[in-house]
Design a protein that fits this description.
The protein is α+β, with helices and mostly antiparallel strands and 368 residues long. It has helices at 2-7, 9-43, 51-72, 81-121, 127-149, 156-163, 166-175, 178-193, 234-237, 266-278, 289-294, 322-343; strands spanning 201-204, 208-215, 219-224, 229-233, 242-244, 252-260, 300-306, 311-319, 351-355, 361-365. Helix 2 runs antiparallel to helix 3, helix 4 (81-121) runs antiparallel to helix 5 and helix 10 (266-278) crosses helix 12 (322-343).
């Protein structure tokens, strides 16, 4: 047995050295990851991405695979050393490239998130930063993939052409569908022409209303008043009719329409409607200086229509934002109803005349 160990002592020493190096590299990787996490908590406490944990697992797997390849030199003929050496270099190149790509993309993503938060705190528009973040991260991953293709001789031409410049467009066109390209171009148009920005309140074709919370390479995300997220492809939203409540001036005029019965006092109803609008905390005085000098009221109220069973009144109520105008309208409906009840003003409902068999008629009240 002693003779056996003496004969293969160099082999055992080499294997032990490989295991020790692999264990050391795994330990260094773990310590480095913990150090980076501590630093990252100090700078980006709001977003601890799992990318560094994934990079650590990838590096640990890389060290183990490289260790196995190194140990396999013991068991193969010298004629195959060249092939193992090439495989060792290939695995090392792809592993390090993958880790660097993940770390760089993660760092860029975190930097852009910090810049976006800073823009929001300074009450500036973060839309460009949000869109560029997706472009930058996507570009890092695409570049990493193309550099990885350079490791394979049969794919040198594809990678070199793509990295050369014009080939990037051809490659994207080749691997992307028409719809994906349309969404990407649509996102670029949104960023360039700014029909809306992140934080704007928009209505899409009078069916969906909410706040824009993100614009990505593929789609736009809208948070509705019910706190639901509506995801609309950029190619679709570019074709829709949009109403932007936050573009330029944000103040909004809300129509508060109330119907009263034909035998109710119109002047009293107009007075009540005006008073309830003007005492609401969200009301905005939108009068000009000339109108103020003339003594015109803050809220204009007028009779706008003779309906089938009601006289319809409208109040032009201004608020600072669209959201406040909706709240104002909702609250005024409630307070006006209570005032009308106490002042004896009827809010009518439709009447129907029923003709009974035998010629008898009966007037009854019924809801349509």
């Amino acid at each position: 047995m002693e003779e056996y160990f003496n004969s293969y002592s160099s082999v055992f020493k080499f294997a032990a050295l490989v295991v020790a190096v692999v264990a050391t590299l795994i330990l260094i990787t773990s310590l480095l990851n913990k150090y980076l996490f501590r630093k990252k908590r100090m700078s980006w406490a709001h977003d601890l991405t799992p990318a560094f944990n994934f990079a650590q697992r990838l590096l640990n797997a890389l060290w183990i695979v490289l260790g196995l390849i190194a140990i396999s030199f013991i068991f193969v003929d010298e004629g195959k050393y060249g092939l193992l050496n090439e495989n060792f270099k290939l695995v090392l190149y792809l592993g390090v490239l993958s880790v660097l790509t993940i770390v760089l993309a993660s760092t860029l993503n975190l930097w852009f998130k910090k810049a976006i938060d800073r823009k929001i705190q300074d009450e500036e528009d973060p839309t460009n930063y949000k869109f560029i973040r997706y472009v930058a991260v996507f570009g890092v991953y695409v570049t990493g993939i193309l550099l990885g293709l350079l490791a394979f001789p049969t794919l040198h031409g594809v990678a070199q052409t793509a990295l050369g410049g014009a080939g990037v467009i051809a490659l994207v066109v080749g691997i992307s569908s028409q719809e994906a390209l349309a969404n990407l171009i649509g996102g670029m148009f949104i960023i360039a022409f700014k029909p809306f920005r992140v934080g704007d309140v928009i209505a899409i074709d009078n069916t969906k209303t909410g706040t824009v919370i993100d614009i990505t390479l593929r789609h736009t995300v809208i948070r509705t008043w019910q706190n639901r997220r509506v995801i609309i492809p950029n190619s679709i939203i570019n074709k829709e009719k949009l109403e932007n409540f936050s573009l330029d001036e944000q103040k909004c005029c809300e129509y508060v329409v109330v119907g009263i019965s034909y035998d109710s006092d119109v002047d009293l109803a107009k007075k009540i409607l005006r008073e309830e609008c003007e005492k609401h905390p969200f009301i905005l005085d939108n009068r000009t200086e000339e109108e103020k000098k003339e003594g015109q009221p803050i809220v204009r109220v007028a009779l706008i229509e003779f309906g089938e069973s009601s006289v319809n009144l409208r109040a032009w109520a201004w608020a600072e934002t669209y959201g406040k105008s909706i709240a104002l309208k909702r609250d005024v409906f409630e307070t006006v109803k209570k005032r009308f009840d106490s002042e004896g003003i009827e809010i009518p409902f439709p009447y129907r005349t029923l003709v009974m068999k035998g010629g008898e008629q009966a007037n009854t009240k019924a809801n349509k």
